[in-house]
Design brief:
- There is one protein chain.
- This protein is α/β, with parallel strands linked by helices.
- The chain contains 7 helices and 8 strands, in the order βααβααβααβββββα.
- Strand 5 and strand 6 form a beta hairpin.
- It starts with 5 loop residues before the first strand and ends with a helix.
Length: 152
């Protein structure tokens, strides 16, 4: 079983609802089903980004996106961005290591005690603010690193 606290980026949440995403939809659903049983914390930023993307791209009716966001708020412990995370994100963003929004997600996760994040948006295997970046997909299956993290 994984003993690491981790988080999910908004792209995983979006894929879980986007039936047009093919294998990523199926795999994102697997990720969430497993994550809820483990020490997974979801940032309020990721849930907010999920809702914004679903509404902007009209992936599902707005009421369905809202209901799903609320379900995840109930299912997972959540983390908000404290001032220290914002300061760290600003510093990382100005050093051009990643975008501000990506660094804020990572630094908020770090403040919440996460050691890993499942995302497609950052460099695979990168360590940013002490958080390991894990790309979750390897074609039609979970990546080996994601599989290890999500194993009970």
């Amino acid at each position: 079983m994984s003993d690491s606290r981790f988080t999910l980026d908004s792209n995983i949440l979006v894929y879980a609802l986007d039936r047009q995403a093919g294998e990523r939809h199926r795999l994102a659903s697997v990720i969430i089903d497993r994550a809820v049983l483990l020490d997974c914390c979801v940032t309020l930023q990721a849930i907010s980004e999920f809702f914004a993307v679903c509404v902007r791209k009209r992936l599902v009716p707005i009421d369905e996106a809202m209901a799903q966001a609320c379900d995840w708020l109930d299912m997972f412990p959540t983390a908000a961005a404290p001032a220290n995370a914002i300061r760290a994100a600003l510093s990382l963003a100005t050093s051009r290591r990643a975008s501000y929004w990506d660094t804020l997600l990572v630094t908020t996760a770090a403040e919440a005690g996460c050691t890993a994040i499942l995302t497609e948006d950052l460099g695979r295997g990168t360590l940013l603010a002490g958080v390991r970046i894990i790309h979750p997909f390897d074609g039609a299956r979970l990546s080996a690193e994601a599989e290890t993290l999500l194993t009970e």
